[in-house]
Specification:
The structure holds 2 protein chains of 2 kinds. Chain A is an alpha+beta fold. Among the domains of chain A are: 66 residues, Aspartate Aminotransferase, domain 1 (Alpha-Beta Complex), CATH 3.90.1150; 64 residues, no CATH class. Helix content of chain A is 29%, strand content 15%. Chain A has 5 helices and 6 strands; from the N terminus they run H-E-E-E-H-H-H-E-H-E-E. In chain A, strand 1 and strand 2 form a beta hairpin. Chain A is extended and about 60 Å long. Chain B is of the alpha/beta class. Chain B contains 6 helices and 9 strands. Chain B has a 4-stranded mixed β-sheet with strand order 1-2-3-4. In chain B, helix 4 runs parallel beside helix 6 and helix 5 packs across helix 6. The chains are: A alpha+beta, B alpha/beta. At the A-B interface, strand 3, helix 2, helix 3, helix 4 and strand 4 of A face strand 1, strand 2, strand 3, strand 4 and helix 2 of B. Strand 4 of chain A pairs antiparallel with strand 4 of chain B.
């Protein structure tokens, strides 16, 4: 139990869980009731707190994304400052943070990479890349890594699966797979051969 | 073929770190066939592997680089596709890039992105990921020596994977690729649930036998010690129940 946040009273908490059950479609693994996923109400750095006041150490960066920890003061302040100036401009118009970030990315990445197209997520960033690649080369197929029946793999393909997305209008989408580099399990592994085979 | 896309450190397939010749070879094959190389650094980028961008470890440059997640520290959602000038110019000179997102270049997202990207550099975040990541990997090697179910530990900076086995000799995985059993009968879920009950958030391995570790890049060696104490206790419990 942490003293960093005040626990929410039980009746209120029960209300949130009832509402979550009635009004949310949950993705990924769903667990049988009465399992309760924590409701997060605060956090700082690598630690976060749930509605009962419990403290957690985050070894996942929430979902591989909060690299600077929760409530990084520099990022919070930048958003706070921007929200009072301009919240949104249409996609073809310019705003100052858009120009500044594109320039900064050109400076920080390899010198051959200079121009940026912005979107809302990694999925969209990859879809845009597929579409750009197809239009630029005039070809359709995209190769991604693939781990057939691999015990290492949560799915049959790795991220990102080039599915039927990012195709220019009227183009057919085809994907191909290339084996992922599984060093530990390759025959030449310095750690010895894999004798087990998937059945 | 239009393009080859992959994450330089293949996280979803179980945190695979390709050997040093892998990316230069892929680059060379792509060049030979006029295929564009897209590197997906949505997870591996922004300091995660101990360098600002993961492909720097292999000394190759992609034709396009995709970023998201850490780019804005997740304060506002943001994705970015960064490309060679020659590719971008194609759309000015030859063809319209008809790909409209209502929120492309959202002012709040880009303000968060600029502040986060500056923070990675100013606060030497990749350097901390490399240092603490090295300590984490060494600590995991200790756990590997002490536990018969820990087959392999691998990582680069603060993206690390622990692969569990039934048998270290044969490398038979602890669980089948796609288990279809109740949660309490699935060793990897029991492990991550046990850690969560002790106050440690990990990525639950919904299938497969690899635990993926990806803490914020600001963590300290003290945080690592605390987390590994919990993980090792839970590994002992899982081994008692399932091995």
């Amino acid at each position: 139990m942490s003293r960093k946040v005040k626990p929410i009273p039980k009746a209120e908490l029960d209300g949130y869980y009832a509402d979550a059950e009635n009004y949310l479609l949950k993705p990924w693994l769903t667990r049988p009731l009465p399992y309760r996923e924590p409701i997060i109400v605060g956090g700082k750095g690598a630690y976060f707190y749930d509605a009962t006041g419990r403290e957690y150490l985050d070894f996942l960066s929430q979902l591989f994304n909060i690299n600077l920890g929760m409530l990084n003061p520099k990022v919070v302040e930048a958003v706070r400052e921007q929200v009072g100036k301009v919240n949104y401009t249409k996609n073809t118009m310019l705003n100052i943070p858009k120009i500044q970030l594109a320039k900064r990315l050109a400076e920080l990445t390899h010198k051959s990479l200079t121009k940026t197209f912005f979107s809302n997520s990694g999925t969209e960033a990859n879809e845009a890349a597929f579409k750009i690649a197809r239009l630029f080369t005039g070809r359709t197929r995209i190769i991604s890594l693939w781990t057939p029946s691999s015990p290492s793999s949560p799915d049959s393909t790795t991220s990102p699966p080039p599915t039927a997305t990012g195709a220019p209008s009227g183009w057919s989408t085809r994907a191909a797979g290339s084996a992922a580099p599984i060093s530990w399990r390759t025959p030449s592994s310095s750690k010895g051969p894999t004798r087990w085979r998937p059945s | 073929m239009a393009a080859f896309i992959a994450d330089p450190v293949v996280v979803a397939a179980g945190v695979l770190i390709p050997p040093k010749e892998y990316w230069p070879t892929v680059r060379e094959i792509c060049d030979r066939h006029g295929v564009l190389l897209i590197l997906d650094e949505v997870i591996a980028g922004c300091g995660r592997t101990g360098k600002l961008f993961a492909h720097e470890h292999w000394g190759v440059a992609p034709d396009m680089l995709t970023l998201a997640k850490g780019i804005s520290n997740a304060v506002v959602p943001l994705g970015a596709t960064i490309m060679r000038k020659q590719i971008a110019d194609f759309f000015y000179e030859k063809k319209e890039f008809s790909h409209g997102f209502t929120y492309s270049g959202h002012a709040l997202a880009c303000a968060a992105g600029l502040a986060a990207m500056n923070a990675y550099v100013e606060d030497k975040i990749p350097e901390n990921a490399a240092k603490v990541g090295g300590y984490l990997l060494d600590s995991f090697r200790g756990i590997q020596d002490r536990h018969k179910s820990v087959g392999d530990v691998r990582g680069l900076g603060l993206i690390e994977g622990i692969e569990f086995v039934k048998n270290k000799e044969t490398k038979e995985p602890l669980v089948a690729a796609s288990p279809d059993a109740p949660i309490e009968e699935r060793p990897m879920m029991v492990l991550s649930d046990g850690c969560m009950n002790e106050g440690l958030l990990l990525m639950p391995a919904m299938s497969g036998s690899v635990l993926r570790i990806s803490p914020p890049l600001i963590i300290t060696e003290e945080d690592v010690d605390k987390a590994l104490g919990i993980i090792e206790r839970q590994i002992t419990k899982v081994e008692k129940k399932f091995l």
